[in-house]
Amino acid sequence: MAARNLTINGSAFSAGGVFDHVSIRGEATIHGDIECDRCKVFGSADVKGAVTARTIRLFGEADINGLVRAETMGVFGEADIRGDAHVQHLQLRGKAEMKGNVEATAIRGYGELSVSGSCEAETVSLAGVVHIGQTLNAEQVELSLYFATSTIKEIGGQTIHIRRGSKWKAFHWLTRFSPLTATLTAEVIEGDEIYLEYTKAAVVRGEKVTIGPGCEIGLVEYRTALVQDEKAVVNEKRQR
């Protein structure tokens, strides 16, 4: 027997369950966990439970009070997830706030990403504002800083490139910030190849390290090469 669809047009309450497609065009409150192939939200959804799907596409606002599992998740509006997220591909074109930890293969896009715990992925490529309460761990980290201060407690990876964005992007929820104040604050940044701009960090460790403009670093430990911009501040340097 094929799973049924859940379609909400307008304002409605629904129980959770197992569905083929979930489509919300309006305002919906769903009590319980959802399992489905595809989930699309074009309005506002308040899910009081976990969501497991092959694809999730959020074009409006979604509050999910539980774990999220998906092969592909696209946030084109705002998402508030009060649990862990296990997503192969996270596409961000808006604002996502995760109260737990995030595990992904690839995280790409622009906007604002906030993770209370740790974030692990193979590739992270984001433009905008990033807040991670614990560790960002990825093989490749590419951050373009826009609008405000990003904060990440620790960053670990093979290739880490952090730059201040050079072009204005019209993120309507971030227009209260100036593009000229975008910086990153971290405690520890550790990788093989590291390039930093407008970054404040206590410790930077790497094989090849470039400290670009606008940086304030307490200690740099490098193995083979260190390049420092004349306008960057490094209090202590050590070759290992």
Mean pLDDT: 92
Relative strand content: over 45%
Strand order of the largest sheet: 1-2-4-6-8-9-7-5-3
Distance between the termini: 64 Å
How would the global form be characterised?
Answer: elongated
User: Poorly predicted ranges (pLDDT <50, ≥5 residues)?
Assistant: 168-173
User: What is the total number of structural domains?
Assistant: 2
| Largest sheet entry | 9 strands, parallel, barrel
Which sequence of SSEs, written as H and E, runs from N to C?
EEEEEEEEEEEEEEE
Number of H/I helices: 0
- What is the count of β-strands? 15
Residues in helices, as a percent range: under 10%
Class computed from helices, strands and strand pairing: mainly beta
Radius of gyration: 20 Å
Pfam families: Bactofilin
Organism: Geobacillus thermodenitrificans
Protein name: Polymer-forming cytoskeletal protein
Family: Belongs to the bactofilin family.
Notable features of this structure?
Polymer-forming cytoskeletal protein, 240 residues, 9-stranded parallel β-barrel, 0% helix, BacA/B, mainly beta, 2 domains, 76% strand
Question: What does this 3D model show about the protein?
Answer:
This protein has 240 residues and is mostly beta strands. It folds into two domains: 1-83, no CATH class; 116-240, no CATH class. The protein has no helices and 15 strands. The protein has strands at residues 4-41, 44-48, 51-58, 61-64, 68-75, 78-81, 85-92, 95-98, 102-115, 119-145, 149-164, 183-196, 199-211, 216-228, 233-239. The chain has a nine-stranded parallel beta barrel. It is elongated, with a radius of gyration of 20 Å. The model is unreliable at 168-173 (pLDDT under 50). Belongs to the bactofilin family. It holds the Pfam family Bactofilin. It comes from Geobacillus thermodenitrificans. This is Polymer-forming cytoskeletal protein. InterPro entries: BacA/B (IPR007607).
